[in-house]
Design a protein that fits this description.
2 domains; elongated
């Protein structure tokens, strides 16, 4: 054996190891057409499921608010019903925001169906939710100090900053504690 054949064998062995490692890593970080299609379907299914849950929780919350508005003598049960259904709805919005931040929802569904709902929750629903609870508490003579807290709504804020202008979002959350 001469030096060239030994050197050639070493180069061949090193080259084989490099190609094996390259193939291993490429296969881990790329997807086949079928895998891409399945991932897309999974994201769409997850998006649809979360939107359905959000819509259902909104309907329950809206029914509670409607029932309250039509009732002549509101009581502590109305407060509790609005509080529980409202918090359930807002928590579902937080779950969706977390999914958006983790990139586990379909991008088109996020853009076309979800973002406007999140923006409306931040701009309208959250402030009115707390105002309504304060109104009921004041009318019934008990103390309620609920307020929108940035700490509890970090994921909502992050999603808003990701998709909307900083100026617009600062205007929405300026009164949040």
């Amino acid at each position: 054996m001469d030096i060239f054949s030994i050197f050639g064998n070493i180069v061949f062995d090193i080259w084989s190891i490099i190609l094996f490692l390259l193939g291993f890593f490429v296969s881990r970080y790329t997807q086949s057409k079928r895998e891409k299609c399945q991932t897309s379907m999974d994201l769409s299914t997850r998006s649809e499921s979360l939107i359905e849950k959000l819509d259902l929780k909104y309907k329950v919350f809206a029914i509670a608010l409607n029932k309250f508005s039509k009732k002549k003598n509101q009581n502590i049960n109305d407060f509790c019903e609005i509080s529980i259904t409202g918090e359930s709805y807002i928590e579902q919005v937080r779950i969706i925001c977390t999914a958006i931040l983790n990139n586990t929802l379909d991008a088109a569904a996020t853009k076309n169906n979800i973002l406007s709902k999140i923006r409306d929750v931040a701009m309208i629903t959250l402030p009115k939710y707390y105002d309504t609870l304060k109104y009921i508490a004041k009318r019934k003579g008990f103390q309620y100090n609920g307020e929108i807290k940035k700490e509890q709504n970090k994921c909502i804020i992050k999603v808003l900053y990701k998709y909307y202008s900083k100026k617009e979002i600062n205007g929405i959350i300026k009164d949040w504690k």
